[in-house]
Design goal:
Elements (H helix, E strand, L loop, with lengths): L14 E10 L5 E9 L1 H12 L4 E7 L5 E9 L2 E9 L6 H16 L12 E2 L1 E2 L5 E4 L5 E5 L16 H31 L1 H22 L3
Length: 218
C-alpha cells in the first residue's frame, strides 16, 4: 500500500466547482469568483484504489457546536489510523451536504485533494450557454463555465508506469549492448595478446607433430 498516491491530482470530471462570490458590473454583465473541490465519490474511489476496499472505512459523529464530524480510517499494517475533520450542515440537503463536506475535509487530512488549496479563487467564465447556473445576491440569474485547471493540478496524461517501463527497457538494451561490446573487446584483447599468440603457435606445433606421427613421417 503506497499512501503517497493519495495525493495524486484528479481528472477534471472528478472536480466540482462552487461560486464563492458574484455580482454584476455597471454594464450589467454578471461575474463570479469560483473555488474547486474534489467530489466525494472520487475520494472513495481513490481510497479503494490505493488502500483496497477492505482496508479503509469512515464514520460520522455529531460535532459539538452542530454540523458533523467525519473520520477516515486506513489500516496500516495491523493498526487502524483515523484522521478527523468536520463541517457545518449545508443550506441545500443540509444533513447529506454536511456529511459530504465533512468527508471531503477528512480526506484532505490524508492529503487527498489538498493540492487544490494552492489554487486561489478565480473568475468563472460567464456565458449564455454555461454548464453551471447561479444568481447574484440581488437575484440576477446567470450561467457560467469553470476555468481551466493548470497543468500541475491535472494527472500525467501518460499511462501509469509506461515511462518507467520504457526507461527500464532502454537501460536493459544499453546494458546488453555494453556487455556485448565489452565481450568483443575482451576477446580481441586476449586474441592479440603475446600469451595467446604463443599458445596458438604451441597448439599448431602439437597438431603438426600428431599429424606426422599418424602418417609415419617421424
Amino acid at each position: 500500500m503506497d499512501l503517497t498516491k493519495l495525493k495524486d491530482p484528479f481528472k477534471e470530471h472528478d472536480i466540482e466547482w462552487r461560486v464563492q462570490s458574484s455580482g454584476s458590473g455597471q454594464d450589467g454583465k454578471c461575474w463570479c469568483m469560483v473555488l474547486c473541490y474534489v467530489t466525494n465519490r472520487a475520494i472513495m474511489d481513490r481510497l479503494d484504489e490505493v488502500c483496497g476496499i477492505a482496508n479503509w472505512k469512515n464514520e460520522f459523529k455529531q460535532a459539538p457546536d452542530g454540523g458533523v464530524l467525519c473520520g477516515i480510517s486506513i489500516k496500516c499494517l495491523d493498526e487502524w489510523v483515523t484522521k478527523w475533520d468536520g463541517a457545518e450542515n449545508t443550506n441545500v440537503e443540509s444533513v447529506k451536504g454536511g456529511l459530504s463536506s465533512a468527508m471531503k475535509r477528512a480526506g484532505v487530512q490524508w492529503n487527498i485533494g489538498r493540492y487544490l488549496y494552492k489554487l486561489d479563487a478565480t473568475f468563472g467564465i460567464v456565458v449564455d450557454n454555461g454548464s453551471h447556473f447561479s444568481k447574484t445576491k440581488d437575484g440576477k440569474k446567470f450561467k457560467w463555465n469553470p476555468p481551466a485547471l493548470p497543468k500541475w493540478a491535472l494527472p500525467d496524461p501518460r499511462p501509469k508506469g509506461i515511462f518507467e517501463e520504457k526507461m527500464q527497457t532502454l537501460d536493459l538494451i544499453t546494458t546488453i549492448k555494453g556487455l556485448t561490446v565489452f565481450r568483443e573487446s575482451l576477446i580481441n584483447f586476449i586474441w592479440d595478446s603475446e600469451e595467446s599468440k604463443n599458445l596458438r603457435e604451441h597448439i599448431k606445433e602439437k597438431q603438426k607433430l600428431l599429424t606426422e606421427e599418424k602418417n609415419g613421417t617421424c
